[in-house]
Amino acid sequence: GDGVMTCSSSATFDITAPTCEADMCTKPDVTNGVVTPSADATLGVGEVYTVTCAIGYSGSGAMTCEAGEGFDAPITCAAICSLPTVTNGAVAPTDATVAVTGSLYRYLWNLHDYL
């Protein structure tokens, strides 16, 4: 909000200069996702954009506009990889069925098959 600062006889202001914070957030561009509401180019503080990732991508969710900080949790849509079947081996961790971009998985050989 607006305020008042008074210059004193000692040539200083009576309060520390305030910091102005943005009260709007610009609609983000999310690769491989759709952002709604689609018609609103900007949102006010506390309002929400929803991101829906395309098929084959994960990361859908909501982003709330925060004063001076932009969004509380920016969302990206990461590609989902189906884990491969390894002949005479396995992929670890063994309880996973899919992986997202950047995830690391190890492949393990069945050593007894080669002895």
Give your account of this protein's structure:
- The protein has strands spanning 24-26, 33-36, 42-44, 48-53, 57-58, 61-66, 70-71, 78-82, 89-92, 98-100, 106-109.
- It has 115 residues and is mainly β.
- The strands form 4 sheets. The chain has a 4-stranded antiparallel sheet with strand order 2-4-6-7, with no helix packed on it.
- A hairpin with a 3-residue loop joins strand 6 (61-66) and strand 7.
- It is elongated.
- The model has no long low-confidence stretch (mean pLDDT 78).
Task: List the keywords.
three-stranded antiparallel sheet, 37% strand, 115 residues, elongated, four-stranded antiparallel sheet, mainly beta
Percent range of helical residues: under 10%
* Tally of DSSP β-strands: 11
Average pLDDT over all residues: 78
Rounded to the nearest angstrom, the radius of gyration is 25 Å
Strand order of the largest sheet: 2-4-6-7
Q: Structural class of the helix and strand makeup?
A: mainly beta
What does the overall shape look like? elongated
Helix-strand topology string:
EEEEEEEEEEE
N-C termini distance: 76 Å
Main beta-sheet annotation: 4 strands, antiparallel
Question: What are the SSEs and their pairings?
Answer:
Layout: E1 24-26, E2 33-36, E3 42-44, E4 48-53, E5 57-58, E6 61-66, E7 70-71, E8 78-82, E9 89-92, E10 98-100, E11 106-109
Antiparallel strand pairs: 1-3, 2-4, 4-6, 5-8, 6-7, 8-10, 9-11
